[in-house]
Amino acid sequence: MQFAKRLEPLASNVFADMDVAKAKALAAGKQLIDLSLGSSDFPAENHVIEAIAQSLHDRSTHGYLLFHGTQAFRRAAASWYEQKFGISVDPETEVLPLIGCQEGTAHLPLAILNPGDFALLQDPGYPSHAGGIHLASGQIYPMPLKSENGFLPVFADIPAQVLAASRMMVLSYPHNPTSAIAPLSFFRSAVAFCQQHNLVLVHDFPYGDLVFGDKPAPSILQADPEKSVSIEFFTFSKSYNMGGFRIGYAIGNCELIRALRQVKAAVDFNQYKGILNGAIAALTGSQAGVKAGVERFRQRRDAFINALHRIDWHVPTPEATMYIWAKLPEPWADKSVEFCTQLVAKTGVAAAPGVGFGKSGEGYVRFALVHEPSILETAVARMGEFFAVSKK
Predict the structure, then answer these.
(1) Which of these CATH numbers, 3.30.70.2570, 3.40.109.10, 3.90.1150.10, 3.40.50.1010, describes 5-43+289-390?
(2) What would the pLDDT profile of 36-59 be if each residue is shown by its tens digit?
(3) Is the N or the C terminus of the chain less surrounded, counting Cβ atoms within 10 Å?
(4) Distance CA 137, CA 269 (A)
């Protein structure tokens, strides 16, 4: 049996290898503390669950849900954006419900790229961004993100021949995995660059609310209020702890929204209307749960960073996201996969190897703050013992 060549880049990845390593550690009797996956351990708010529960008894929600039936959700999303970012949004032409952000970021390249076209992606970056390019038979040009540049790409370093064949750029800030925040001035330069080179500017925005300082993370649409080249993806997985409900949306340039809608129409209908009703409740109801979640992640961040310092692993304190992006000490400086597989085998602590997010991620490891502070401190204590044994 023969399969399409586009599947070849998707055949294996380090995260699948880490799943095997975690299974072996469990089989060996290790008590697993899994910090490798960014899935929030917080529940959705009660008013969200109640909206979904009430929908179950409404027979009108039991059938297929076409675009017109999502109007209330699209209006709620547009209103939320206008209130939060001061951007006027047309819910009829500039908003599209999605079965999670990943559906949108994976399908959009099918609407933009012809085979062989380039997409400019962050390196390191979220792995599914690359997956969508491969499925569209596109080529990837990785834009290295370096600590000395604040983990922001340097557009001047992109070769002219690559730019000539490029059709889209994908950004995501606050950034997974580095936790970097991009200032609005950077977004303005990105918009100008994409306008100059006729590129679609895609911004994946799952961590927009997960910022620990007083200054909110900007939307790409604040740098492109006319929505000339930009589309942004928002998910309910992080802000509202609705990862399992698979609900998100795209917002931005009306032509891009229409093109993505065409691809989506060929693949699926929308999800159950009751889930959209829950998402409406999340957007229009009290935001106290969002603020409380950010505070809990801040406490976890501080506990984890302080514990790392106690074992003499000095890592910068992130200002956003639910991750710690840690530069590996010697002798693991360029061995992130080996470090993570040995760590879980010997201590039960699972982390994500930096190289799994791209070549420029080698030498780092990502920890997800998905446990309470006491468990995080236990994980770091185990790592301290691991380092002590490794040095002998």
Answers:
(1) 3.90.1150.10
(2) 988 889 999 999 999 999 999 999
(3) N
(4) 24
